[in-house]
Design brief:
By secondary structure, this protein is an alpha/beta fold. The chain contains ten helices and 13 strands. It has helices at residues 6-11, 54-63, 78-89, 128-141, 161-171, 197-204, 210-223, 262-275, 280-294, 305-311; strands at residues 13-18, 20-33, 40-53, 67-75, 93-99, 105-112, 115-122, 147-151, 175-178, 192-193, 228-232, 238-242, 245-249. Pfam families: PfkB.
Length: 313
């Protein structure tokens, strides 16, 4: 692996658009069962908020040394204010649509002795007028960026994803899309789509051999008019499909502690590397290294430029 291209990354400009959420963690100790119901009682000792979803992708771009702009929807509430504050602290330029009728998507996790015991979600689909505001911001920012990342968590911010892709193509800006669901026609015309193994199976069905996967992946890539299709396969590594054929990298040998947000880290690394013009195969190598590092961390985390540079030596 070549040395980390820090100077080039510092000039990269990545526009991240998608479903923004706040990941809230309550850490505590469990030493008894509730007398009211057979559930553990967690005595909360520490609380922590982290950027999630598209915001975590932008945070990862900034941690790698790139310039990240974040577009998305939040509520006019405490969680939305928290996202703005955390984005600023992470070095992310956030241009957010705040909707008083739309609560910020919030995932609250309760952990006892480093084990997740409960997750509570707060979310609501955005209204058309809110999406109009997001579209206007996108039109203003698009031309000032090298790459667009579409981070889809099926919360509604990317309901008009086809329009966003069309605008980026017209402007000559590459689009990397992290898909959700089985309707991949929504992402037609993107430059790269990055399904994980389960998402790929939703799209093309289960495969039994590598040749079968290759055939189905290349057919999907052609049908969707994609330049590249990258399937992230957890412990099996990553496989890239382009017009030139198939390339694969094995997973890095790291202890897996928590896979939360690992796809965000991979997507951010791909975007930063593509923004400076690296070929897809080389970008995949860096993304694979970043993914191997981040799964060794607890919760929604990032990989820094220093960590990735250290991995390359």
């Amino acid at each position: 692996m070549k040395s980390y291209p820090a100077e080039a990354i510092a000039r990269s400009r990545v526009l991240v658009v998608g479903d923004i959420m706040l990941d809230r963690y309550w850490f505590g100790e469990v030493d008894r069962i509730s007398p009211e119901a057979p559930v553990p009682v967690v005595r909360v000792a520490r609380r922590e908020d982290r950027l999630g979803g598209a915001a975590n992708v932008a945070r990862n771009v900034a941690a790698l040394g790139g310039q990240a702009t974040l577009l998305g929807i939040v509520g006019a509430d405490e969680a939305g204010e928290g996202i703005g504050r955390l984005a600023e602290q992470a070095g992310v330029q956030a241009d957010l649509v705040a909707d008083a009728d739309h609560p910020t998507t919030l995932k609250m996790r309760v952990l006892g002795r480093q084990q997740q015991l409960l997750r509570v979600d707060f979310e609501q689909h955005p209204a058309p007028a809110t999406l109009d505001g997001l579209d206007a911001r996108y039109a203003r920012h698009l031309a000032q960026h090298d790459v667009v990342v579409l981070s889809d968590y099926a919360k509604g911010a990317l309901d008009r994803v086809q329009d966003l892709i069309a605008q980026a193509r017209a402007a000559g800006v590459p689009v990397l899309a992290d898909p959700k669901g089985d309707d991949y026609a929504r992402y037609r015309g993107a430059t790269l789509v990055t399904p994980n193994r389960a998402e790929m199976q939703q799209a093309v069905g289960r495969w039994t051999t590598e040749s079968q996967l290759t055939e189905r992946a290349q057919r999907l890539r052609a049908d969707l008019d994609l330049e590249a299709l990258l399937v992230t396969r957890s412990e099996q590594g990553m496989t890239l499909f382009t017009a030139a054929g198939r390339e694969h990298v094995d997973a890095q040998a790291h202890e897996v502690f928590d896979v939360s947000g690992a796809g965000d880290t991979v997507l951010a690394t791909l975007a930063a590397m593509r923004a400076i013009g690296l070929p897809w195969a080389e970008a995949m190598g860096w993304a694979n290294r970043a993914g191997g590092i981040v799964v060794g961390k607890l919760g929604t985390s990032v990989v820094t430029a220093a960590e990735l540079a250290g991995e390359s030596t």
